[in-house]
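Help wanted!
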Amino acid sequence: MTDSIVRRSGDRAQQVALMDWNSPAHWWPLALESELADAGRKPIAVTLHSIPWALVTLDGEIAALKDLCPHRRVPLSAGVVADSAAGEVLECGYHGWAFDRSGACAVIPALGEGRAPRGMGGTPTISLMLHEGLVWGSADESADRSSILRSMSSSGVLLRAQVVMQPAADVAWLLAGEQAGPGAVLRLAHSSELTFAIRPETEFSCVVFPIVPSESFESGMQTWVQTLAALESAVALPL
Amino acid sequence: MMQPGEDILLDNDDARLRRAWHPVARSVDVTSTPLAVHLNGDEYTLVRHGDVARAGHGLEDAPFSAIEVIGDVTWGLQEVYGLVWIAQERPVAELPPILEWFDQGYHSGVLTRSTVASAGVLIDNFLDVTHFSYLHRQSFGRSRPVTDDGYAIATTDGRVQLTHDTVLQEGRRNSAGGLGQRRIATYTYWPPYITHLQMVFPEDGAQAAATLICQPESKHSTKAYVLVLLPLSDPDLDDQINFSDRVLSEDLVIIDKMADARLMLSWKSELHTRADRASIEMRRSLSKFLDLCEAAQSAVDQKEVLV
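Answered by r_m:
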């Protein structure tokens, strides 16, 4: 693994910027809405700041539950949506413990039929926002969302998200230059029309969501293919 | 000693486990061709001088060919229950008795599987019954949730015993004309990683036994051995071995997905119901066993300082 380019730069402003990329007080892109629609009654696993989350549609609304059953620490994303007296719930595939949209434990089958868990066994959730085809998540519901709402165009087409094995701050800096900041839709450097969103997956990896305008889809996609290929082969500076 | 609120996860290659007997191979797999095996992160090579493995079911006193361990020093080696066992340091306990193995009225087979899950998680899964209607709906045929009905626990000198009286295959007509197959199961756990299951099916008088024994090969690798034991009057040993393999596969589908597949020794760090008492007692018993191992090692270390 390589150390962050930004961290090694020694630039104080960039050091501060790096800390900001690790802050939960932003909205981060988690998945395409279309992915959730295609998944149906199965959750999708995503990782944000090294914490796993299970994205799932329950009763028509998308929820993000921590991807760890509090019973035996099996990923909830290995479960399925089930019906219960409390509505649709995410049922763990190991013992059937089931959780509603708020993360509360709604069903523990081992307690017996008709017996509901009373305030035990909940799992954390994060707030979600849907905007222009992307599912955004934040640990801070009050985090500023204005830059996202401003910068995403309704004519943009989302390409398939790409995992890049480099820190998010570095990838954003490489793609968008020194003005790149977290929690926003960024413009690709040297391009007037190509934009992207980016999520810190772990300390050493991120997920890039490329966006192209529908009116220049083919050329935009080609540019993104070349850009991301070049990114993968970018060589880290020696420590 | 656990502190309140502290998560204590057991590494699969915990050094204290060097003071226990662990299986490293099936007897039939140890021949004159050197066989590399792994235990608690160390590698050993086994060679049998001859071609006679130690048999069971009344033949365990018959002559068998000795096995040599090449490589790192071990405290001891023995061959029993169709397996070859190594203790890397003087063990704090001897192997428990698996009575069906010594019974001439039984026959047996041993299946093996490898997994990234820890030995502790595998044992926890074997002792658990409330996952039957989720993981084993196809094999056991259990559709209704399992609760703590018919569930009783006893612990004696570090050994944990669970008795579970339940009905499987609820949709199937049984020989008595009713629905479902009643199974009275007795699970016995010995630390660190041995669990023996004895089953009686009262409707037709059938019996069976299975022993899960886990070999912690390394931090991220465990080999599971399932010793399948049937009375000689039941000729379907191969079917029972295949069934056991299928059941284990169903368990591994979910367990292999754990991001951190170590056993949580601090049982209060996870949530439990009354139907999880076997799991809790297993962790208590294992924790005490590890304390014994640590004390034994400390005694040796102090002696070495004084000498």
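OP: Thanks! One thing I noticed: Chain B has a mean pLDDT of 93.
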